[in-house]
């Protein structure tokens, strides 16, 4: 029999709540660019990463947007097929290729960014300026701690 003090109250479980929030926010944002621009969530995330940090390798993109290689690879292939992303082979290391938005990709990115920022502003409207600063600081702390826990778990698995 399960100890009642150990019952998982899913509706109060932080990982669950964060996942639900992320899914709802991601779906709402997706509605703003999916149909008008024909992009998937992963494709938009790739474009956003390249719009901010290019040039990046596909592996770098995957690390930035925290998505697996297969999903990133499919998204990049689709974006390249549409002429939104360009690949350039590294002259020093021919095995390495960097990605960047094409002129067409930069133009689309420039049209989507204001929509995304407006959505973010609308979402944050429920918080005061002080609450937003606190939320941002707490989110940064939780993210850094979660990364540390993930790294610790990975080290434990390797040493087992």
Instruction: Give the low-pLDDT segments.
Output: none
Q: How does CATH name the architecture of the largest domain?
A: Orthogonal Bundle
Write the CATH fold name of the largest domain. Arc Repressor Mutant, subunit A
CATH superfamily of the largest domain: Winged helix-like DNA-binding domain superfamily/Winged helix DNA-binding domain
Shape summary: globular
Number of helices: 6
Strand content: 5-15%
Calculate the mean pLDDT score and round it.
92
The major sheet is characterized as: 2 strands, antiparallel
Order of helices and strands: HHHHEEHH
Euclidean distance between termini CA atoms? 31 Å
How many domains is the backbone divided into?
2
What order do the strands of the largest sheet run in, or round the barrel if closed?
1-2
Structural class designation: mainly alpha
If you compute it from the alpha carbons, what radius of gyration comes out, rounded to the nearest whole angstrom? 19 Å
CATH class of the largest domain: Mainly Alpha
Helix content: 55-70%
Can you put this structure into words, describing what you see?
The longest helix has 31 residues, at 129-159. The model has no long low-confidence stretch (mean pLDDT 92). Helix 1 packs across helix 5. The protein is built from six helices and two strands; from the N terminus they run ααααββαα. It has a two-stranded antiparallel ribbon with strand order 1-2. The two termini are 31 Å apart. The chain has two domains: 9-112, Arc Repressor Mutant, subunit A; 129-160. The chain has helices at 14-37, 41-53, 58-65, 69-81, 103-124, 129-159; strands at 85-89, 97-101. Helices cover 69% and strands 6% of the residues. A hairpin with a 7-residue loop joins strand 1 (85-89) and strand 2 (97-101). By secondary structure, the protein is mainly alpha-helical.
């Amino acid at each position: 029999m399960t100890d009642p003090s150990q019952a998982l109250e899913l509706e109060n479980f932080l990982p669950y709540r964060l996942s639900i929030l992320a899914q709802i926010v991601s779906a709402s944002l997706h509605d703003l660019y999916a149909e008008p621009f024909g992009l998937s969530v992963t494709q938009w995330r790739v474009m956003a990463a390249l719009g901010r940090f290019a040039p990046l390798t596909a592996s770098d993109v995957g690390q930035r947007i925290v998505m697996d290689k297969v999903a990133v690879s499919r998204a990049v292939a689709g974006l390249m097929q549409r002429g939104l992303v360009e690949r350039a082979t590294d002259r020093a290391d021919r095995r390495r290729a960097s990605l960047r938005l094409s002129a067409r990709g930069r133009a689309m990115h420039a049209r989507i960014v204001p929509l995304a920022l407006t959505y973010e502003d609308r979402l944050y409207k429920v918080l005061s300026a002080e609450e937003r600063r606190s939320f941002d600081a707490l989110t940064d702390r939780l993210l850094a701690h979660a990364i540390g826990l993930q790294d610790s778990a990975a080290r434990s698995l390797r040493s087992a």
